[in-house]
Amino acid sequence: RVLRESSYFDRNIIPLLACLNSVAICSLALQAQEFGSRGQMILSVSFVEIGIRMTVDSRLPVVGYQIKMQFVLNNFFFGLLFLVLESSLAYLLQDKHGDLAVLLDRFAGIAEALHMLAVLGIYYSGSGA
Question: What's the pTM value of the predicted model, to 2 decimals?
Answer without folding.
Answer: 0.83
